Amino acid sequence: MQSETEIIIIGGGLAGLTAALHLHKLGIPVVLIEKDIYPHHKVCGEYISNEVLPYFEWLGLAIENLKPTFISDLLFTSLSGKSIQTKLPLGGFGLSRYTIDHYLYTELIKRNIRVIHDRAMQINFAYDQFTVETANNTYVAPYVIGAYGKRSAIDVKLNRQFIHKQSPYLAVKAHYKSDFPNHIVSLHNFEGGYCGVSKVENNRLNICYLADYESFKKHKNIVAYQENILYKNSHLKSILENAENLFESPLTISQISFQAKEPVYQHILMIGDTAGLIHPLCGNGMAMAIHGAQLVSVLLHQKLEGKITSRTALEQKYTAQWNKEFKTRLKMGRILSALLRNNKFDGFAMNTLSRMPFLLKQMIKQTHGKPIHISQ
User: Are 109 and 38 in contact (CB under 8 A)?
Assistant: First the structure.
């Protein structure tokens, strides 16, 4: 059976859910296709910059009811044991993907937005429209938004360039019980990777780290890897030794690619990690996903109202706006990651930042955006 709509969103993560809420508010029919059932945990740093708050208010979302942890400071530590702390220009908050994704999903259901729990198998574009085949149905729409995450079988079907290249990265995440300070998001460098630590709702501590897979596989399990590698950073050792794991086992994901992707590919408008993944060192991927949803929704609305006259113009405008907002952030993330993975540079960087703390604030500004306001 074939089902028609105006816009199909493939993927019900933070970006896809936000785009569905935005487009629905503008009166645009949407079908969101998500393979998993809510709620569920995801490997994620779970820190969101306050730049998204005006946009959430416009969407009618009461994020404060989820009891987020309010974060004002960034602490950065090096393998050598040095540390530097600074105020975040806008501040932020901590919310688990388990909680915020589920909340956004329930808002879709309350607002009668159609959600299909199915797996997208194939996307075809012909005669100015898309046909999306899932495991159980076929959907047709003039526009498709790709919001299906870091990597997918769909990327293989689409023959995207990044999917054919091996990535050296593995990510590990778990929640803990700990007396870690609520107001701090901390980033800790270790040999072959770095780790983000901050509180989320319900006084839980989220610890999520990116590791070099070649180094990781030399150890028999996660505990051994942490004790032999992460513990070399004294700050991380103290945090992990004084934290009680609340997960039965940590979540892991491999083949994480930070290579450049395309915001538009085969006429699909990509958002969130599907369009580009920022190194967790920069700690603001969730806000980027939300902002990307806003950008694409505004432009699609303009196209449907005739203010943008062609699909080509739509794609060009979206690519230009996406690059303007995010290209520098992604580039900065790749540069910082490359530099800080170099143990020789690590000490020099910390000494420089200690003497000139304004440089750290400039780095933060390069990886964060301005508050998202809607002019419509």
Answer: no
